[in-house]
Amino acid sequence: QSLFIKMMFVIVSKMMKITLIAPCVVVDWIFSDEMRLEFERMWTLELLNSAVDCITSHLRYTQKKLENLHRETTDTKDSNKKHSSSSSASESDSDNDNESVLTDQQMAALQSEIENLRELLKNLLLNILHKFMMKLTEHIVLCDSKDVDVNTSWYVYVNGRFNDFFMENWEELFEFCDALEEELFDPQIIDVQIINTYKKFISLRS
Q1: Cα 8–chain centre separation
Q2: CATH code: domain of residue 168
Q3: 1-5, 86-90, 117-121: which range is least confident on average?
Q4: Is the Cβ–Cβ distance between 54 and 16 less than 8 Å?
Q5: Residue 157 lies in a domain
Q6: pTM of the entire structure?
Q7: Integer Cα distance of 157 and 10 in angstroms
Q8: Cβ neighbours for 29, distance < 8 A, ≥ 6 positions apart
Q9: What is the maximum alpha-carbon separation in the chain?
Q10: Is there a domain that residue 52 lies in?
């Protein structure tokens, strides 16, 4: 079974990397009823982090491409200024204008891709946290209705994975703090235990 799980993790991770399957689909699968038993295994948390890494890696790669293009454009402009001559100024200016238009289009395309990836990343993080919160909230409500202790072994484990997800993806989550507070962590709606987890995470930034 251990070998099967390792193979499953590798296969799903590779499928996300080569875009055969979207990270959001993997997240929905992990939190689905059919994965209820496997959800308590460590590999599912690792796969959640892999889903986030899939997008963050693509985002960083695209940002790097844009930075390199900016640098190359600056170097080219400096080089053209040094080597331009009055005899071929008109032809050189025309070539430079064409190159500039092409570069601007490339930059615009990369910038658009970055914005789309950031939105995709934000939505994925919100989705994962929301699903964690729903699982924990359902458990809390059920325990309250039966007047039993909330802190079962299941709750302690899942709440621990909830905390781990914050710590594993702290950089990306801090970037979207405003969206988290606006769309998820409303203290008037969310259970105090879940809010406390978020507050502990936010306190690390200060």
Answers
A1: 21
A2: 1.25.40.180
A3: 86-90
A4: yes
A5: yes
A6: 0.85
A7: 24
A8: 35
A9: 90
A10: yes
Rounded CA separation 74/91 (Å): 20
Residues in the chain: 206
Q: Which of 140, 119, 144 is nearest to 193 (CA)?
A: 140
**DSSP type of residue 181:** H
DSSP 33-52: GGGTTGGGSHHHHHHHHHHH
Domain with 159, as residue range(s), is: 1-33+44-72+103-204
User: Helices 42-83 and 89-146 sit at what angle, rounded to 10 degrees?
Assistant: 160
| Whether residue 124 has pLDDT greater than 90 | yes
Domain for residue 38, yes or no?
Answer: no
* Spatial separation of the C-alpha atoms in residues 116 and 93, rounded to whole Å: 34
On whether the CB atoms of residues 118 and 58 are closer than 8 A, the answer is no
Q: Tell me, what amino acid is at 37? A: L
pLDDT digits (tens, 9 = 90+) for 136-148: 999 999 999 999 9
Structural domain includes residue 164: yes
pLDDT bin (cut points 50, 70, 90) of residue 87 is very low
Q: What are the C-alpha distances in Å from 193 to residues 20, 79, 87, 138, 162? A: 38, 60, 75, 13, 12
Residue 189: which residues within 8 A CB-CB, separation 6 or more?
none
Residue with tokens 């409500």: 141
Q: How many domains in the chain? A: 1
